[in-house]
Amino acid sequence: MEVKTSLLDNMIGVGDMVLLEPLSEDSFIANLRNRFDHNEIYTYIGSVVISMNPYRSLPIFTPEKVEEYRNRNFYELSPHIYALADEAYRSLRDQDKDQCILITGESGAGKTEASKLVMSYVAAVCGKGQEVNKVKEQLLQSNPVLEAFGNAKTVRNDNSSRFGKYMDIEFDFKGDPLGGVISNYLLEKSRVVKQPRGERNFHIFYQLLSGASDDTLKKLKLDRDFSKYNYLSLDSAAVNGLDDAANFRTVRNAMQIVGFMEDEVQSVLELVAAVLKLGNIEFKPESRCNGNDESRIKDKNDLKEMCELLGTEQTVLERAFSYRTVEAKQEKVCTTLNVAQAYYARDALAKNLYSRLFSWLVTRINESIKAAPKSRHKVMGVLDIYGFEIFEENSFEQFIINYCNEKLQQIFIELTLREEQEEYVREGIEWTNIEYFNNAIICDLIENHQNGILAMLDEECLRPGTVTDETFLDKLNTICAEHLHFESRLSKSSKFLTDHSLPHNCFRIQHYAGKVLYRAEGFVDKNNDLLYRDLSQAMYKANHSLMKQLFPEGNPAKVNLKRPPTAGFQFRHSVGTLMRNLQTKNPNYIRCIKPNDKKASHIFTDSLVCHQVRYLGLMENVRVRRAGYAFRQAYEPCLERYKMLCKRTWPHWRGPAREGVEVLMADLTVPTEEFSYGRSKVFIRNPRTLFSLEERRRQCLQDLATLIQKIYRGWKCRSHFLLLKKSQIVVAAWFRRYAQQNKYKRIKSATTVVQSYTRGWQARKLLRELKYQKRCEEAVTTISAYWHGTQVRREYRKFFRANAGKKIYNFTIQRIMQKYFLGLKSTMPSMSPIDKSWPVKPYLFLDGVHSDLRRIFHLWRCKKYRSEFTEEKKAVFEEKLEASEIFKDKKALYASSVSQPFMGDYLEISKNPKYQKLNSAMDEKVLLADVVNKINRANGKGTARIFLLTKNSVVLADQKTGQVKASVPLPDLTSVSVSTQSDGFFALKLKEGSASAIKGDFLLSSEHLIEIITKLHRTGATAADSEQLNIDISDEFLVQFKHDKVCVKFIQGGPKNGNSVSCKRKNNRLLEVSVPSTV
């Protein structure tokens, strides 16, 4: 059975802040601290997720957790970022609603990690496939590239994002990713030229110097020593936990996966190296004749190397650092730059070069990951952007960042209220207006096209004459003096004249998250963000592959005398586009909070968390969510959760779920003003009502658990008793059986004894009677025999003397023959035909009969033995018989061959793969296959040959190669010569004039000579067209070798010759074979 779970089960603190009771800032912070101390880093505000940075790894992001939250209701499990990601993904896939996930928080709060978790979860739960996996991998691998070029180490965060990122991930109708589009906002390019104490420049500079190979650094004209570059801070160059070398390899691999070509990667690294070289260029003053100072470059080596990297002329760039050309209509004015202006130009070029390179990287990644424009795609946007910033000194960057957060807060409140109102209308609940702080007045103060702060800043930057930060502040004091959310001591407002916390060169804006003091110094310059046209044109003239794309305004053919748009104007336009984009999507919010400034785990700083809770507007979020109904739940899970509180709904409710909830609420006597019934949900107004239900449910569950325990223990005891009872019955039955068996054995034993005595007495009595009866019968028989004998003798006495001798003789002979045959039957020899034993004759007169019986038995025994022969065995014995007729008493070797069976194929030529070729060359069945030695007449030495015998021919083949050396038809074979001794030599003599006799006869030697000659003799005898093969057995015979006849002579060898047969050539006409006498 599936286990029903809920957000309310095993809850530490309150999982959803909407249910927090009582609601105050202190209780809000205390609840966050309580959950943080128990490693619960996620908390809900309705559908908003609050994420606390734990500053350590927790076992809550495993693949098992992904499967646990997959396709689950948002409130079904404990709060988790995976629940929000799953809700957004399922709404996009199933309901065809475009989604956006807004991740906000200050630096170090974990925004970047949260965006990675969202993307990794979506990648894990969406479809599979080669193309889909490639798209997912490219989307995920875009993060390391952007982090390397856009993240840096700050005092608050070792991997702080110094730019805002919005990624639109596009999906098809099945929910599989097709691609994406990345938008970046306001890269902190001032970090390129200057970093605060304890912070670093962007990661890529340190990764390049630490992880690139020596050959790469040599090509880029760089050195690994950080101290040689002015743009790199040295006090925090090394960061604990950051391996720059390994991260550089990761970035290179990620760029390859995303789709960067090798030459593009090299071009990017060249520009990074050029920025480092640019920071090392220093200037010195040089007086001119008109009394003005002109800047000159001190050491031109770094300038030379930078120009080589960019492919531009050194003189062009050197002049751009010394002179500035101002064009107005048809006039051109060339002015010299002093040292301060030259340093400003150098830093401006470095900032623009890096920021434009970063924008090009984003564009290049978009080209790789963009989806094909086939049809409408579903879109999920992920916004990872800076949170509200309040520093000791706040400047232009903090101003526009806080402006962006004002806009996000505005859209958050609007969309949240709209979502609440739509749900109430959808459920048929009466909507009541909710009072909340509308920060539109603050947004209007900043972005109003006529009287807004950004509009006045642009107006100051564009107007002719002397423009300073003081003139800008004066303008603000004039126009915004009466605004409720603007404060300044120079506004001549009586209430701020004595406010010493407000310096004269500053102004203060009361944002939704609190008051922020901005220093006006630097607003005008940072908003202008000017790059001298001479430097733009110098960059455009460079031969580097990316320069013309990065500095299009430097094209001399397209000179634009209009001033470029200001930074504030561009950011306001980007934020407006972003807001319009977000309003078309269903929003999902992740609010990231940093628990402490020490970047340490298990530390919760109440004041710091309280500060973030305020500027993130989390209390405002809770109040908006609680303005109507604090809790709502569908009827089915509500009834499933609380049905045990009512006897009518427990354990099963058979009707509709809504009716069951109505019965449940009526039975619990919940006040009607505390809840309302929607079309598919029940709405609970006050958290106290929900907690009361939970408390009743907890108590009821305890009672049910007690009841279950009672029933279980009763069942367990009954089961144990029944088991004991059953065991007792079994034991008793076995014991009674054992006792009865023993009793039976005793009775049986006694009965047997009584029976034995009784039977003994009866048997003895019967024996006595039988003995008496036998003695009586013997006595009667004896008397009768004597009486009959007397009668017979009286009758035959007259004939007895005439025939007594003959009858006695015949009776005696008959008895002797009977005894002889009976004795012969018991002493009969075995059935083996070679068994020559026979019983000794007992009487001389039986000599003829005894011999005839021996012969008849032997013939009968041989017939029985022959009847058991198979055809194969019969053929073997026929061969043995023929060998006996040929060699017995003629050849000394024959005796040792009798016990050896004739095998025929000693080489297994049909099975051995070595002789496969030779076997395939034979057209007939091979009767015999053996290795023989062919004797050479020249020296008497033997050469191994394969001897094959078929029905029609004799074949000699090479033993190693299997090549046929000679083939002799059997009709060409006239005779075979062998010696009388125990050697294996034999000569095959060929018919004169035949084709086989050209090379002469064959003198061979074999261990199976008897079998070879026997089979030759039998085969030749059965061939229809051949004559009987002659077997010549002699110790001296002639052999024809080509044209000469050689005599082969066999002699007995002495002990000095050893035990082997040797053949030696004596002369041209004699071969002498020495045969040892011991063989």
CATH architecture of the domain at 872-1076: Roll
The assembly state of the depicted protein chains is single chain
Strand content: 15-25%
CATH superfamily of the domain at 872-1076: Pleckstrin-homology domain (PH domain)/Phosphotyrosine-binding domain (PTB)
Low-confidence stretches: none
Number of strands: 31
- Portion of residues in helices? 40-55%
What is the CA–CA distance across the termini?
Answer: 93 Å
Total helices: the number is: 30
What would you call the structural class? Answer: alpha+beta
Largest sheet: 8 strands, mixed
CATH class of the domain at 872-1076: Mainly Beta
CATH topology-level fold name of the domain at 872-1076: PH-domain like
Which word captures the global form? elongated
Average pLDDT number? 83
Describe the structure.
The radius of gyration is 60 Å and the shape is elongated. The chain has 1079 residues and is an alpha+beta fold. α23 crosses α24. The model has no long low-confidence stretch (mean pLDDT 83). It has 30 helices and 31 strands. A hairpin with a 3-residue loop joins β18 and β19. Strands 23-22-21-20-26-25-24-27 form an eight-stranded mixed β-sheet, with helices on one face. Helix content is 47%, strand content 16%. Among the domains are: 142 residues, Kinesin, CATH 3.40.850; 118 residues, Myosin VI head, motor domain, U50 subdomain (Four Helix Bundle (Hemerythrin (Met), subunit A)); 126 residues, Methane Monooxygenase Hydroxylase, Chain G, domain 1; 49 residues, no CATH class; 205 residues, PH-domain like, CATH 2.30.29.
